[in-house]
Amino acid sequence: MFAQSSLTGTKAEQYDQLLEQARGLMHGETDRVANAANLSALVYHALPELNWVGFYFYDGKELVVGPFQGHPACVRIALGRGVCGTAAQTRQTQRIADVEAFPGHIPCDAASRSELVVPLYLGDQLVGVFDLDSPVTDRFDADDQAGLEAIAAAFIQTLGPA
Protein backbone atom coordinates (compact mmCIF):
# COMPACT_ATOMS: atom_id res chain seq x y z
CA MET A 1 0.00 0.00 0.00
CA PHE A 2 1.28 3.47 -0.88
CA ALA A 3 1.58 6.15 1.75
CA GLN A 4 3.67 9.25 1.08
CA SER A 5 5.25 10.91 4.09
CA SER A 6 8.06 13.33 4.81
CA LEU A 7 11.52 11.81 4.87
CA THR A 8 13.42 11.89 8.17
CA GLY A 9 16.77 10.79 9.58
CA THR A 10 20.10 10.39 7.82
CA LYS A 11 20.30 10.50 4.05
CA ALA A 12 20.58 6.69 3.93
CA GLU A 13 17.49 6.38 6.17
CA GLN A 14 15.61 8.83 3.97
CA TYR A 15 16.40 6.73 0.90
CA ASP A 16 15.18 3.61 2.72
CA GLN A 17 11.90 5.43 3.39
CA LEU A 18 11.68 6.66 -0.20
CA LEU A 19 12.32 3.13 -1.51
CA GLU A 20 9.52 1.81 0.70
CA GLN A 21 7.19 4.52 -0.65
CA ALA A 22 8.24 3.67 -4.23
CA ARG A 23 7.54 -0.02 -3.70
CA GLY A 24 4.14 0.80 -2.24
CA LEU A 25 3.37 3.08 -5.16
CA MET A 26 4.25 0.41 -7.73
CA HIS A 27 2.81 -2.57 -5.83
CA GLY A 28 0.78 -4.76 -8.18
CA GLU A 29 1.36 -2.49 -11.19
CA THR A 30 3.37 -3.80 -14.16
CA ASP A 31 2.86 -0.98 -16.68
CA ARG A 32 6.23 0.69 -17.14
CA VAL A 33 4.78 4.05 -18.18
CA ALA A 34 2.48 4.23 -15.17
CA ASN A 35 5.26 3.27 -12.76
CA ALA A 36 7.77 5.63 -14.40
CA ALA A 37 5.28 8.51 -14.20
CA ASN A 38 4.53 7.93 -10.54
CA LEU A 39 8.19 7.39 -9.61
CA SER A 40 9.19 10.59 -11.39
CA ALA A 41 6.62 12.56 -9.40
CA LEU A 42 7.47 10.84 -6.11
CA VAL A 43 11.21 11.46 -6.37
CA TYR A 44 10.86 14.99 -7.80
CA HIS A 45 8.71 16.09 -4.86
CA ALA A 46 10.57 14.13 -2.16
CA LEU A 47 14.16 15.21 -2.81
CA PRO A 48 15.51 18.75 -2.60
CA GLU A 49 17.41 20.69 -5.25
CA LEU A 50 16.17 18.84 -8.35
CA ASN A 51 14.98 20.45 -11.55
CA TRP A 52 14.30 17.30 -13.60
CA VAL A 53 13.52 13.68 -12.78
CA GLY A 54 12.44 11.18 -15.37
CA PHE A 55 12.95 8.27 -17.67
CA TYR A 56 14.23 7.72 -21.17
CA PHE A 57 13.22 4.42 -22.75
CA TYR A 58 15.21 2.54 -25.38
CA ASP A 59 13.22 2.00 -28.57
CA GLY A 60 15.70 -0.42 -30.14
CA LYS A 61 17.70 2.39 -31.73
CA GLU A 62 17.97 5.32 -29.30
CA LEU A 63 16.69 6.67 -25.98
CA VAL A 64 13.29 8.39 -26.19
CA VAL A 65 11.93 10.63 -23.45
CA GLY A 66 9.37 9.00 -21.20
CA PRO A 67 7.49 10.19 -18.13
CA PHE A 68 9.18 13.00 -16.22
CA GLN A 69 8.79 16.00 -13.93
CA GLY A 70 10.44 19.30 -14.85
CA HIS A 71 10.86 21.48 -17.91
CA PRO A 72 10.38 20.04 -21.42
CA ALA A 73 13.25 17.73 -22.31
CA CYS A 74 15.31 16.53 -25.24
CA VAL A 75 13.19 13.94 -27.03
CA ARG A 76 15.84 11.59 -28.46
CA ILE A 77 19.34 10.75 -27.28
CA ALA A 78 21.75 8.48 -29.14
CA LEU A 79 23.50 5.70 -27.23
CA GLY A 80 26.91 6.89 -26.11
CA ARG A 81 25.93 10.56 -26.36
CA GLY A 82 25.62 12.82 -23.33
CA VAL A 83 25.27 11.57 -19.77
CA CYS A 84 22.15 9.49 -20.49
CA GLY A 85 23.55 7.85 -23.61
CA THR A 86 26.82 7.12 -21.81
CA ALA A 87 25.02 5.45 -18.88
CA ALA A 88 22.96 3.33 -21.29
CA GLN A 89 25.98 2.28 -23.34
CA THR A 90 28.41 1.61 -20.47
CA ARG A 91 25.78 0.02 -18.19
CA GLN A 92 27.23 2.14 -15.37
CA THR A 93 25.60 4.85 -13.31
CA GLN A 94 26.92 8.27 -14.25
CA ARG A 95 27.26 10.69 -11.32
CA ILE A 96 28.40 13.99 -12.76
CA ALA A 97 29.35 16.80 -10.36
CA ASP A 98 29.57 19.45 -13.09
CA VAL A 99 27.79 18.76 -16.37
CA GLU A 100 29.69 21.61 -18.03
CA ALA A 101 32.86 19.54 -17.59
CA PHE A 102 31.32 16.36 -19.08
CA PRO A 103 32.47 15.88 -22.70
CA GLY A 104 29.46 15.82 -25.01
CA HIS A 105 26.95 16.94 -22.38
CA ILE A 106 23.55 17.64 -23.95
CA PRO A 107 22.11 20.79 -22.34
CA CYS A 108 18.39 19.99 -22.40
CA ASP A 109 17.85 22.43 -19.51
CA ALA A 110 20.36 25.27 -19.25
CA ALA A 111 19.74 25.43 -15.47
CA SER A 112 21.15 21.93 -14.85
CA ARG A 113 24.56 21.85 -13.20
CA SER A 114 24.88 18.25 -11.97
CA GLU A 115 23.31 14.96 -13.04
CA LEU A 116 22.88 11.36 -11.96
CA VAL A 117 21.78 8.74 -14.50
CA VAL A 118 21.07 5.10 -13.64
CA PRO A 119 20.99 2.64 -16.57
CA LEU A 120 17.97 0.34 -16.61
CA TYR A 121 18.61 -3.21 -17.77
CA LEU A 122 16.30 -6.22 -17.56
CA GLY A 123 18.87 -9.01 -17.75
CA ASP A 124 20.94 -8.12 -20.81
CA GLN A 125 18.18 -6.04 -22.41
CA LEU A 126 18.45 -2.24 -22.25
CA VAL A 127 15.17 -0.75 -21.01
CA GLY A 128 16.36 2.86 -20.70
CA VAL A 129 17.71 5.20 -18.05
CA PHE A 130 16.50 6.94 -14.88
CA ASP A 131 17.76 10.53 -15.03
CA LEU A 132 17.97 13.23 -12.35
CA ASP A 133 19.23 16.78 -12.87
CA SER A 134 19.98 19.48 -10.34
CA PRO A 135 20.61 23.22 -10.65
CA VAL A 136 23.30 22.76 -7.95
CA THR A 137 26.85 21.71 -8.80
CA ASP A 138 27.92 18.48 -7.05
CA ARG A 139 24.36 17.79 -5.80
CA PHE A 140 24.67 13.98 -5.86
CA ASP A 141 26.89 11.89 -3.60
CA ALA A 142 27.42 8.17 -3.01
CA ASP A 143 24.33 7.95 -0.76
CA ASP A 144 22.20 9.49 -3.51
CA GLN A 145 23.64 7.07 -6.03
CA ALA A 146 22.99 4.01 -3.85
CA GLY A 147 19.46 5.15 -2.98
CA LEU A 148 18.51 5.97 -6.56
CA GLU A 149 20.02 2.73 -7.88
CA ALA A 150 17.81 0.85 -5.38
CA ILE A 151 14.73 2.73 -6.58
CA ALA A 152 15.68 1.97 -10.20
CA ALA A 153 16.09 -1.73 -9.31
CA ALA A 154 12.62 -1.73 -7.73
CA PHE A 155 11.25 -0.25 -10.97
CA ILE A 156 12.96 -2.97 -13.05
CA GLN A 157 11.47 -5.65 -10.78
CA THR A 158 7.96 -4.50 -11.78
CA LEU A 159 8.74 -5.38 -15.41
CA GLY A 160 8.95 -9.09 -14.68
CA PRO A 161 11.68 -11.70 -15.05
CA ALA A 162 14.59 -11.14 -17.42
Helix tally equals 4
Quick check: average pLDDT? 95
Q: How far is the first residue's CA from the last residue's CA?
A: 25 Å
Q: How much strand content do the residues show?
A: 15-25%
What percentage of residues falls in helices of 4 or more residues? 25-40%
Q: Order of strands across the biggest sheet?
A: 3-2-1-6-5-4
Shape: globular
SS class:
alpha+beta
- Stretches where pLDDT falls below 50 for ≥5 residues? none
Rg (CA only): 15 Å
The total count of strands amounts to: 6
**Most strands sheet:** 6 strands, antiparallel
Strand and helix order: HHEEEHEEEH
Walk me through this protein's architecture:
There is one protein chain. The chain has 162 residues and is α+β, with helices and mostly antiparallel strands. Helices cover 35% and strands 24% of the residues. It is built from four helices and six strands. The chain has helices at residues 11-26, 32-46, 82-90, 142-157, and strands spanning 52-58, 63-70, 76-77, 94-96, 114-122, 125-134. It has a six-stranded antiparallel β-sheet, with helices on both faces. 35% of the residues are buried. The model has no long low-confidence stretch (mean pLDDT 95).
